[in-house]
Amino acid sequence: MSDLQRDLRIAVLGVGMMGAFHADALATRTKGARVVVVNDFAAEKAAEVAARVGARVVEDPIAAINAPEVDAVLIATPGKAHAEQVQACLAAGKPVLCEKPLTTDEESSYALVQAEAAVGRPLVQLGFMRRFDAEYAALKDLITSGGLGNPLLVHCTHRNPAVPDFFNSEFMVRDSVVHEVDVARFLLDEEITSVQVLRGVATSSAPEGTWDPMIVVFETESGRIVTDEISVRTGVAYEVRTEVVGETGSAMIGLDQSLVRTSTDGRWGGQITPGFVERFGQAYDTELQRWVAAAKQGTIDGPGVWDGYAAVAVCEAGVKAVQTGEKVAVALKAKP
């Protein structure tokens, strides 16, 4: 049997909410994939997920990466562990799908850009799943084909019903706004050069010192403006929308994933997805399937290490903008 015909044998590092979701998806909904190793600092959780997907537990993450039966790695550990773990994947020459962030600081992210360049082929893919969502892909195609003329503005909305108290303003930028950072770069195909954060009145459910909601304003290389309303304690549902305004038209996605209705008493409405899995579940599945197919050939199919680095750099500037209330420039290092 050729390498392309046999299952890709995968180690899943970190089996919290996201990692367990990915492990189950790989085991039950992804063709040509098999989870063979599971690692997590919580031994009981690792054992539970490993038993469910038919894998063995390896207590040390680096040992899990280097296990002889592992062909590729999925990293869903906390961000502070990513730098060492991705570096180990590069050293082993194994394709890796790393959940965002690439790392927790710009310097270590760029070190991974350089490390992959030294390997000589793309091995690091970032888990920016919105690029695999049918609506975002259609919007990208519309822009690329010139269907909106020159895109002038992008407006994003990102609302969560509730988050834990540790989800402060800086965490909102690093964990939520990071998706809109990648969306803007993906749709407009250019880098972000500055970030500004408008901090208004906070919702009463936000912890003291947390600005929620915020308006984040990006400026791109060509001078285009991208706005992002980030609000993570709405108490309503999971709402993610994106509108692109061009010279000859505009288009919006994420309005509703179901029928919008009106009634004789003057009410109208539909349904909003309760969580990220309902909204982007298919995008995650598509992302995994395409990554598995590419990893069998020793490469990736999606946003790469540079995209991860650029997102970290923009979010670092975003955190400074939250802290200072000032417009902060983004200066990316040289692209290999």
Automatic annotation (TrEMBL):
Superkingdom assignment: Bacteria
Reaction catalysis annotation: myo-inositol + NAD(+) = scyllo-inosose + NADH + H(+)
Keywords: NAD, Oxidoreductase
Top EC group: oxidoreductase
InterPro entries found in the cross-reference section: Gfo-Idh-MocA_inositol_DH (IPR050424), Gfo/Idh/MocA-like_OxRdtase_C (IPR004104), Gfo/Idh/MocA-like_OxRdtase_N (IPR000683), MI/DCI_dehydrogenase (IPR023794), NAD(P)-bd_dom_sf (IPR036291)
SUPFAM superfamilies assigned: Glyceraldehyde-3-phosphate dehydrogenase-like, C-terminal domain (SSF55347), NAD(P)-binding Rossmann-fold domains (SSF51735)
Keyword Oxidoreductase: yes
Gene3D superfamilies listed in its UniProt record: Dihydrodipicolinate Reductase, domain 2, NAD(P)-binding Rossmann-like Domain
Similarity comment: Belongs to the Gfo/Idh/MocA family.
Subunit record text: Homotetramer.
Protein name: Inositol 2-dehydrogenase
Organism in which the protein naturally occurs: Microlunatus sagamiharensis
